[in-house]
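request received
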Amino acid sequence: MKAYKIYISILAVAAMASCSKVLEKRDLTALQSDLVFNDSTLALSYVDYIYGQNLPLWGGTAGTVADRTDESHGNNRYMEGTLQINDVSDFGTSLTASTSPWLRIRVINNFLVEIEKGFLSRSFKNSLKGQAYFFRAWRYWELVKLYGGVPLVLSPLEAVGPDNKELAFLPRNKTSECIAQIAKDLDSAFALLPGKWPDPANNGVAWGRITSGAAAALKGRVLVYWASPQFNPTQQVDRWEQAYQASKLAKTTLQANGFGLHANFETMWFTERNNPEAVFITGFNNSSNDQLKKNNGYDNSTRPAVAGGSGGSNQPGRMLVDAFPMKDGKPITGHASYNAQTFYKDRDPRFYRTIAYNGTTWTLNSINYNRFWSYFSSGSTYAPFAPNTTQTAPTNTGFFCRKAIDPSLAASNVQFCGTDWMEIRYAEVLLNLAEAACGTNRLSEAYDELKAIRQRAGIAAGADGLYGLQAGMDQDQLFKAILLERQIELAFEGKRYWDMRRWKLFESVLNGKRRNGTTYTFKSSATVPNHATFLTVRETMNFDTIYVNNMTLANKVMDTYNINWKPEYYFFALPQATLDNNPALQQTNGWPNGSFDPLQ
Amino acid sequence: MKKSIHFRKLTLLLVLLTSGAVLFAQELTVSGKVTDKESGQPLEGVSVAIKSSSKGTTTNSNGEFILKVPSASSVLVFSFVGKTRQEIPVGADLNFNVTLAADNSTLDDVVVVGYGTQRRGKVLGAINSMKATEFEELPITNLGAALVGRVPGLSVSGGFSRPGSNATLTIRNPVILSKDGGTLSPLYVIDDVIRTEEDFNLLDPSEIEDISIIKDAAAAIYGVRSSQGAIVIRTKRGKIGKTQISFNSSYAINNATQLPDMMTGYELAKYLNASTMARRNFVADGSTGYLADAAYYTDDELEYFKNNNYNWLKQAWKPSHLSRHTVNVSGGSDRATFFAGASYVKQDGNLDRISIEKWTFRASTDVKLTNGFKVGLAVSGDLGRREQYLLKQGGENPENDMKGLLYTPGFTPPYIAGFPVRLSQATNQNTIDAFHFFEAQRLNNYNNEDNNGLNIIGNVEYQVPFVKGLTAKVQYSKTLDNSYPKQYGTTYKLYKFEMTGEHDHIYTENVLLNNTSPITASNGNRIYIKPSFNNSYQFNASLGYTGRFRKHDISAIVVVEQSEYKYNDVQTVVETPTPGAPDDGRFAFGEEDIFETEKEGGLVGYIGRVSYSYDNKYLAEFQGRLDASTKFAPENHWKPFYSVAVGWVISNENFFDKMSRTVDHLKLRLSMGKMGSDNTKDYGYIQRYTPLQNGGAVFGGNGNLSIGTRPEAIPNPDVRWDDNLKLNGGIDARFLKNRLSSSLDVFYDHRYNMLTALTASVPILIGSAIASENFSTVNAYGFEFSTGWRDNINKDFTYNINTFFNWSDAKNVKVDVEKGKVGTYEDPTGKSTDMGVQGYHYLGMFRTQADVDNWLSKNPGYTLFGQAPKPGMLYYQDIRGPKDPLTNKYAAPDGKIDGNDLDFITNKASNHWGFGLSLGAGWKGLKLDIVMSGSFGGQSTVEGAARKLGTATSSRPAFWTDVWTPENTNAEYPNPFYSSSYDVTSAFWFKSSFNFRMRTANLSYAIPAAFTKKMGFSNLRLYVSAVNPVNFFNPYSYKDNASGSFDAYPNLRTVLFGVNASL
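response:
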């Protein structure tokens, strides 16, 4: 009996000690919905997370991809013609990968649902939702331009339990349905977003947010693609008409909100806040703090090694060099004042802002290089390019890309470059409008936009006021002129690859060829008998004389194989892991077992 | 002799039972002699104590003693280290001749089980136990590694290489399928308190009494987290007897069993030339030829490299040292006992500035306050310090020291004229190729951690009067752990030099000083400190009962257990430490950040066990536990666990008498348990959002990254405990006077409703991880067989051999699988969890263009991963065409080698068979113990890091010297340029997975008592001990097969000299 009492009392002691608090624990490491969507700062930080997830890199989501175009060179499966179905994995091959587009789309869809459950003001909710809609359109567009139609997921899918999972095995939607949804989301964004965010000078935290103009401009871009031969092989004119209307609205909206062409083609990159050219940007900063930094890697990898970079990327090839017109806007072919030995003379001013050749005058690291040399003194010996320095990592093609390379950045800070990326800049809006106008036979309007671009570029207007454009072009000629203008205006901005895709240019421009560069080798002359002498006079000698008398220019073959782009690359394959995951997805036509027609 | 003791015992029992009221008794003087049963020699220093009193004495050098006892009913307790304790009632005879036997009659050994102990002969579970004496002299700094090769079914990996990296223990091929929050590790219980794996590894063997490894449902008593088995440790407590002081001191040298063998600079340059030639299509001249390629090493350069090679690793590597010192004091009377011990271990690394240092201390006392009322108090703690490098270039990874040293080509000198050499010309210096180990070493870039832990256990035990055998016990344990990790990373300058040689590949002594040289490499460039504090307690209250009614033995225990923890850490970062200034945050003036993390959790459990035996023949045991976990929603907190076990000691049956001459003991046992685990992330049942400091974007031109708030995994409100049904059947047998012993266990684990982080079967379109669901079913099974022989040839020579053999495998019954793989060769359902090595069927290497042409004529359009075949490529069998997404059927071979031609090319990938072999021998004072173990049945392959294409900044193992070129068509290895053709898994890369090595060896010599006595020691031993002394089989030319990837810290061989003394 007593033992029983002791037993009871011990249990009682134990029970008291283990009062229910032991099991009442909170999650101290995270927030819950009621907090996030009822607090304006937290709700905004959710939207900022959407920005962080979706903003493109320099050159666009895929980067500059100059090695897949006539801009530069480089070994890759696209050019080699050995692309495998798993190589374009942007569709997402894993449920949990942070790079999966579906994860990013879910974050947006979740936001659009949850924000409505909170009690923040209607206008605040709308301004946040507008940004979310924009990025949903952006994300879908980035998929559609690779694959054509993809499944449209417009609300967060239920996931727990086998039934919910079964419901989420969705097939691909038609490309046309996707384009319609993208346009619809962009219309929503356009309606909900301001044309310009209030951006008080001392609290300029809104610069870089999406505006209604950006939404309109993206819609213009999407619809121009949709009208292009890749998506529109039969050239249905109504698509060009839609593209025209959207591009026109983009231009007028942006104009009304103070956007326009930046006066200076070179320095526009370094104007950050309130840059009229910057329609849709990815902000970068020059912080070196691990947690706070977002540095742009483009400058670092593109500039010559001597200036703190590697010089390894984006080296212009000869095709691009030759694409630039002369300073009167006329092409070099058959031009009276063009000479192959002095190819750099009297070119389009954009040539000098885009391409550095042997002997370029260039400011780097705030040092004014009178002549930035990149020739060989003999055989394979790379010559000193400036007093007391040696450029030991030569440019392979003979050229460096100098677009958006910050001249004032110190070598040690190149890795922390903060130049913002303009994913959509005003010039593109005008070029989109020109193309859509051309597609709808509004040829003079197309001329006007091209002229505006060329005027800003600094090309002489010429007696006919056409800035070197050929007079009286028909629709086909004008399309070609617009594409050329895009090639040079937007060089190394990651646009050329997509232009070549949507106009299906790879076969005609690249296939069967190898891309070239140029080598310059010192040669002696009567007045400059050897390289040692040359070193003493090269800074002051007449530049053209140097090229004519002391430089041997030779063609250098860059590719080790003939380019072999295949027609199925215009719409990529879904990776095997994706198909394995979801058998409801059809493979793209042109690939093994392909049954999905991206043209519908 | 034996009879007389029995007789006296019996009389005493009678006296005790019949006379409830023994009145005053006369004080008596007893005397006697204690001898060693094995040697027959007198034993000195044997404690002779009077039970339930503080009085006692010890034997003299002749083994004799004299002692006054209060009455004839007193009980004498004889105890001596290493001998079986004996209790003898005084009775009428006042002269005692006692022999003490060696304590190896394991049937009566006490085995620690959950919340109590059991005699080995009555154990019903699959439990292995061992004394710490078996391994306490080994030169091992983490306890887990000491268990390697000793226990069937316990796998031990790691723990023998980098100082401070601990071994990982797993029991019987466990499985987890949830992504985070789960563990394959068993539960660690130290003195009845659930502790962490780290706490376990911090224990010094000198503090430990014994260890039990519970492999089956017997662990159900621990409920939560015990479904991967449990490792239960009992630490040393004071023992009744003369105060014993023992010291142990040892010193060891560690070195790599084999340093990775890499290409020299000359060899690498030749290899790279072979690659460049292939890239240039083997065309020598012209603008597209390899001779004009700046990457090509010209003859003059090659000649130079031949005579100028720098082996970075050899320059940095040296033998390292380990020293260990322990001291223990133990003693006490029947009234109170005490134990105090301390240990100190220091091991430095084979690279300067790597080390660990560890202090442990432990003190405990057990006091009988009054009859039946006992109080115990134990305090233990550890102080540890680990030093290693901070290596952040190429991603923070402690192995980057080895990678940096091994990858750097031999043609690159570390320093020229005192200037550190820039290793990679790439812009991005944040890669492993650009990492300059010696500069990081010189600048003291460290990642150190100081730890201290304190554990206090108090317990009160009360033998409840009036109910015989009923004991109440309350135990409270408090554990406080602090750690103070600090990282210090700087920047350093690297220089370019004027280059010479035809293609500018040879360094000259002329350093370049311009705007690209020096370049600043950043190895973190910050000071990071993360002090943390973990505060936990565990409270147990229990009521135990043991009783015997005729032939029925019953014991039972009821326990309430409750624990809570609270964890806090603060992470602080200060960037840009001033170069040259001390490693102190006050001298860093960059950005500062602080983050804080807090976590808490609680557990409550109600536990019970009833054990029953009838006449020591029929045994049964029931265990149950009700546990709550705060990982789940409140309505899913609770879960019951239970186990049932039965046993039959056949050898105790009457009919067995005839066989008892050869069979001493034979027991059959069966156990079944319903277990479960909460192996998943906390709070999976609610939608969580986390704000990330760098999760947003840059606004306002040049602003800092804004905060971004991220939604976490999709919640599963119904997530709950998973289920695990464990079955185990076993036979224990002893033969031939206990000299031969054998044990066989067969187990079957049926795990169902397993917490699974589903990914494969979830449509990617859902777009988020999902909290674990109770989904999968996996059955694991296997057996363990062990047998041992122990005998002595004469009284001087003893020997023993123990072996074990085990096998385990598991089968996927229901697992997460992609819809598109259902029914294909990749579908894991119904197959082993180890489906084998997946790769391509290797056919050969194209040696000549004729080979290729010949092949193409038979296989038109054949491509290897999209590429047309070329001489110097490996090629594979085309076994399938593309898969039809509607039927999941593969098309016929399509002449293209791609992902569709993958196959499982071996039955098993990992070794499922394991064996161990321990040998022991003793001759007089000499003793030798050897532990060997091995495994087989799987398939090893050359690791990915060794297969990858080498570059001018990243060297590769030496086997790559023989590569295909048009001049060397009979090469063993393909041309390095065609990496997509060879950097895949295939039989080309196979190596045998059989491994067999001597794990440890220990030779000791006890200096004869005659000498030690003069020196004042009761015992003095010298010993030599080795870890990893012999590897019997290594199929790899360039590394030790136990080292893992060649670019990791290699497996170490340790040789130790030690001395052990007792006073």
